[in-house]
From TrEMBL:
It comes from Luteimonas chenhongjianii. The lineage of its organism: Bacteria, Pseudomonadati, Pseudomonadota, Gammaproteobacteria, Lysobacterales. This is Molybdate ABC transporter substrate-binding protein. PANTHER family: MOLYBDATE-BINDING PERIPLASMIC PROTEIN, MOLYBDATE-BINDING PROTEIN MODA. The gene is modA. Keywords: Metal-binding, Molybdenum, Signal. It comes from the Bacteria. Residues 1-29 form the signal peptide.
Amino acid sequence: MTSNPFRFRVLRHAAALLLGALGLPAAVAAQERAPVTVFAAASLKESMDAAAARYQRETGTPVRVSYAASSALARQIEQRAPADVFISADLEWMDWLQQRRLVDAATRREVLGNSLVLIAPAGSAAQPMALDADAELLPLLGPRGRLSLALTTSVPAGRYARAALESMGQWPSLKSRTAESDSVRGALTLVARGEAPLGVVYASDAMAEPRVRVLATFPAGSHPDIVYAAARVSASRNPQAAAFVRWLDGGAASAIFRAHGFVVR
C-alpha cells in the first residue's frame, strides 16, 4: 500500500493547528493567572485575606499579600521591592509615593475608613468610658503601666492616636508612659497579652482580637480622617494590578470590609 504525501501534509498541518488552538488559550490563561502582589497596611490582615480569596475565586487570579506598617511598605516600594498594588492606612504615605511617581495616580482610589478606639485586655477591670474633656487616662495605667501605641512619628495608627490625645489635652501627661510598636498590630498584641493595660488601635483591629475589649471610641473630630488609599505601583507590569484596585471599590469587596469593621467610602 502506497502512502499519499499530500494527505500526510494535510494531516500534519491540521494537527499543528489543533495543538496551537489548544495551547494558546492555556498560555493566555497562565499569563492571566500571574499573582497580584499587594503591599497592605497591617490593619487590613483579616479583611484582605478574605478579599484576596474572593478575588481569586471570581477571576482565577491569585493575590499574594504582604502586611506591615504603611510607612515600612512605602519605603520598601521606594527601594524597588516587587509589588503590584499598595494599600496605605493614610493618605500621607500614598502622597509620598505619588510625589516620587512610584504609584500610578490614575489608578488611585480612597477605598476605606476606620475609627480609633481605646482598648484594654478582655479580663481587665477597666470600665467603658466617655472620651470627653473630663476623661483621664493616666490613672488607668497604674503606677508602671504603659499606653500601647503604634509609632507616633511614622505609623498612621500612631499618628492618629497622638493627634487624638493631643486634641484632648492628654498627650503631655502620657507621652512618657507609652510603649510604641512598629505596627498597629504590634500595639494590639501588647494589650491582648496583658503586657499593657491600655492601647489605642483601629476599631477593626479590636474586632479581630477576642483578647481585648473596647472601652471607648475617640470622637471623629479629635484626629484626622482615617482614610485607606489603594493604587497600582508604577513599576508593576502585571495587567491585573489596576483591575484589582478597581475591584476593591466594588460590592463584593465592600461587603467583606464592612464585616471586618471598616467604613466603606
